[in-house]
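Query structure, 141 tokens:
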């Protein structure tokens, strides 16, 4: 799909005719010209331009580190995925909430920080946006 229709307005009239037990529905001409507004739909908008989270290296697997959430200006459902910076699969993002969770062991001495690119896309195949998430790993307390 190259382009979505973000705003559509239709005005029609319907006329039903019949008598007795036999009825037929006939569509009339539109009461006004059909109006369709097309163009690129606006992408989802993240609450921040970038996110900075901190996690201890001894945090539990599946612990939520933070949330990078976006909203769709058109009201659609937003889904999330990690597009870059997660080669070791150390993190995951919840597909429906944008919550970043720990998926592997951390070591503050060998990798003190990670930079992820998270994408938010409109579920119906619409536009997408990305944000940067920097995760700083601290030594075990």
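Result returned for the query:
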């Amino acid at each position: 799909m190259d382009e979505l229709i973000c705003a559509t307005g239709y005005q029609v009239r319907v006329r039903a005719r019949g008598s007795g037990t036999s009825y037929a529905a006939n569509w009339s001409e539109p009461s006004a010209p059909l109006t369709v507004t097309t163009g690129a739909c606006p992408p989802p908008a993240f609450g921040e331009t970038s996110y900075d989270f901190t996690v201890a290296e001894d945090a539990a697997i599946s612990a939520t580190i933070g949330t990078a959430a976006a909203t769709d200006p058109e009201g659609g459902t937003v889904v999330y995925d990690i597009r870059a910076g997660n080669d070791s699969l150390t993190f995951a993002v919840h597909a429906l909430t944008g919550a970043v969770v720990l998926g592997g062991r951390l070591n503050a001495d060998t990798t003190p920080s990670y930079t992820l690119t998270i994408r938010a896309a409109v579920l119906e195949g619409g536009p997408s946006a990305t944000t940067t998430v920097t995760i700083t790993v601290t030594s075990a307390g």
